Amino acid sequence: MTDNVFAPPRSDVEVKEGPEALWALTWKEIRKLYYASVNVRAIGVLYGLGAVGVIAGGGVLMSSPSGTRNPFLPGLATLFVVLGIVYVAACVSSYTRPTWGRWLGIVLSVLSLLSFPIGTLIGIWMLVAYIQGGRLFGPGRFLHKDVDLVFKQRKKDKK
């Protein structure tokens, strides 16, 4: 008998927290999903900031002095407010992640491609995040907290 009988018992039991479906993914897939999830959350912050800016711009246009009013200002102000509401919906959907939120994000990122040069770069980044994050949206979606938990455990195990 070469083992120490007084040594504490050893266990090879691995603790896997999070959904089993995430553990079935390869390291490369879970890493891609994690970064897509983080990027979608960051895009949600950008949508929130954009909503505040667009709605504030619409409010400024609506409150312009009546003597200098252009006949197109009320329509432009209304467009700004409607666009701000769409941005608020996109911001909320970046965190709640319903099926329609992904499609709204893809449409807004395609529209962002028209804003050359910085909007084009942001639009490409957004498109990549929404395309790679398909499993993050819809009824059978993976939650960010679960993806984060599994990613960190797998990263720690990799070291």
Strand content: under 5%
Order of helices and strands: HHHHHH
Count helical runs.
6
Helix content: 55-70%
Overall SS class: mainly alpha
Radius of gyration: 23 Å
**Number of strand segments:** 0
Give the mean pLDDT.
Answer: 87
The overall number of domains is: 1
N-end to C-end Cα span: 33 Å
Global geometry: elongated
Uncertain regions spanning at least 5 consecutive residues: none
- Largest sheet report: none
Describe the structure.
Helix 4 (99-112) runs antiparallel to helix 5 (118-132). The chain has one domain (27-141). 68% of the residues lie in helices and 0% in strands. The chain contains 6 helices and no strands. The model has no long low-confidence stretch (mean pLDDT 87). It is elongated and about 95 Å long.
Q: How would you summarize the topology of this molecule?
A:
Elements: H1 20-23, H2 27-62, H3 73-96, H4 99-112, H5 118-132, H6 144-158
Helix pairs in contact: 2-3, 2-5, 2-6, 3-4, 4-5
Q: What distinguishing features does this structure have?
A:
159 residues; mainly alpha; 68% helix; 0% strand; elongated
Provide a short characterization of the protein structure:
The chain has 159 residues and is an all-alpha fold. The chain has helices at residues 20-23, 27-62, 73-96, 99-112, 118-132, 144-158.
